[in-house]
Hints:
- The structure holds two protein chains of two kinds.
- Helices cover 28% and strands 20% of the residues of chain A.
- Chain A contains 15 helices and 22 strands.
- In chain A, helix 2 (56-65) packs parallel to helix 6, helix 2 packs parallel to helix 15 and helix 5 (134-156) packs across helix 15 (553-568).
- Chain B contains five helices and no strands.
- The interface between A and B is medium-sized, with 27 and 21 residues.
Amino acid sequence: MSDQGVSKQRRRFLRRGGAGLAATVVAGEVLARPVTASPKFDAAVDILVVGGGGGGLPAALFSRWLGNSVMVLEKAPSLGGTAAKAAFWYWVPNNAAMRQAGVSDAKPDFLRYVARLSRPESFDPAAPRFGMSDWEYAMCEAIYDSASEAAELLAQKDALPYRHAGPVPDYWIELPEDKAPRGRVLLPRDANESMSDGGRVAIRMMTAAARRDGVQLRTGHRVQGVIRNAAGRVIGVEALNEEGVVVRVHARKAVIFATGGFTHDPELRKNFLNAPVFGGCAVHSNEGDFIRISSKLGVQLRNMNHAWMCPVSLEKAVAKDGSISGIFSMAGDSMILVDKQGQRVVNEKLAYNELAPAFFEWDGARGEYKNLVLISIWDACAQEHSSSDEFGRLIVPAGADARHVIHGASLEALSEAIAARLEKYRSATGGLALSDDFSKNLKASIARFNGFAQSGKDHDFGRGERIVEQLFNGAVRQESGSHNPTMWPISETGPYYAALVTGGTLDTKGGPKTNPNGAVLDISDKPIPGLYGVGNCVASASGRAYWSGGATLGPILAFAFRAARAAHAEPVSA
Amino acid sequence: LVAAKKLAVAHCGACHSFEPSGPHGQGPNLYGLLGRAAGTAQGFRYSPNFLTAMRSQTWDRKLLNEWLTDSQRVAPGNNMVYFQDDAQKRKMLADFLQSLHDTH
């Protein structure tokens, strides 16, 4: 929704509510605040949760289990948010399964590991906060202290029984700071064997538990603002339902926002992210609602420049295809990524968050994002042995959606087909086109790669040398002569396949700063009474880091747990 | 039917496509759903829980109405979480889905 749309809707709400506007100057910030003697509410609960996805559903359950009446308002017509599309691994330090197995995960070790990755520029293993700010340190402590308790409670209540992905490594297992390199990852118990569909399992189980335990679930309600009383306490929200009717809900104790990031708001993306991403995997309803809603409240935005990054199919991102997934796994051994000149520019097997920045490398001499679109190329062997419709892979099996796949009987024919496909996207890519010598360079790149594949050693980019790179390699043909499962020579003969790839977001991870209990802080670092936020709608203390698989959802469960507990302890407003 | 289509795109369109031979997304393509045996969209991988519950059923208005009321009650543990308490909205969605078939 445009700025104008929001303000128009807001005016309509104010008119309908019969509210006047009072502007109060607080520490240089103007707070627009509806003031009403006796606001008319359509419903009242103790704790109101906005957003019914991977943060909102657990926040609602935790709140309910403390004895509160709870309602969830979800903007989309169905629950689940981005989490429903995810594998829903959740990274839980010092979890019960680790403790049972005798795997040690001490708190200082955990904090050193996250500090090393989140603040590499100031990391100091001997400093009291290891180079993190006091706020970052406190937020990461909260993850360590509460993620396991949250996971255990969800499991005990049969809302999210889990299984332990014991062998799954952290993404930075080689760092000396990673003292518990395996064992922190949990996933929904009933997820499939390949661990790809945990999100759908988690959402259906948490939804079933919410209905079982009496959480009121309302879909199709777009929350557009909070209602504060004369003392400044947040006492409810106003929402627009699918019929365009304004609904106001009173929250006697607190409102917890869990509305996701701003992946699908081009204006916010353009002005806050440090890269020109096309969008990404997040559900379309992640439009930065809480950024806009909270901007009237004098909050501090933090970590707006970073996102949970991943490669995405250019074509699906541009088309805003609802089924788009992040490419978690650049699968295939006889597969490479080349730039518009036909050259390899990156280690294709880097973990998704680390591969994504390659697309946004700035060429300061030419004045362009030279890698904005890279081209994945593979041969018939990879097509046969590495195809999968899981984890957003580009090499898909017969019968799956293959509109993004470009075909060529020879490398020349493939190059022509790639050029034609890129031409379709000229207006979206700043006119990105193949160089005249693309086909010639591509052949040379393949020849060079094939040499590396034969020896198992990628002298250009070190492909496949780290554990995480093999974790996401996907299935490949068992080759008796292979020294490195991530590389095999690309065939001298066609057919060949290609796909256009760019960088995207799983979702963004910046927003209002909260305290470690999820309370949204004002510009003087004081909680705004009655207002909480968890998940991607608020600031993550992770900086640019993606510590491990599940480093999104593990912390989200911890903060949902802590926010629910703090909201439960809030005084009851009239 | 225009309003019904708009509702269907909003409620179903993130996961399903509607056009003939449209691609599968999170859920299967829905063209020609009514009259089709459940769980038979070519190339779509259904969850085991869906197949267990839906095997031998054919999509008709009655089944679709139950499904839209609470998909988890019809096929517990299947991948689709959707419930719609509003009978009018269910009818509009079903009207639209019924319109998606070949005309001879």
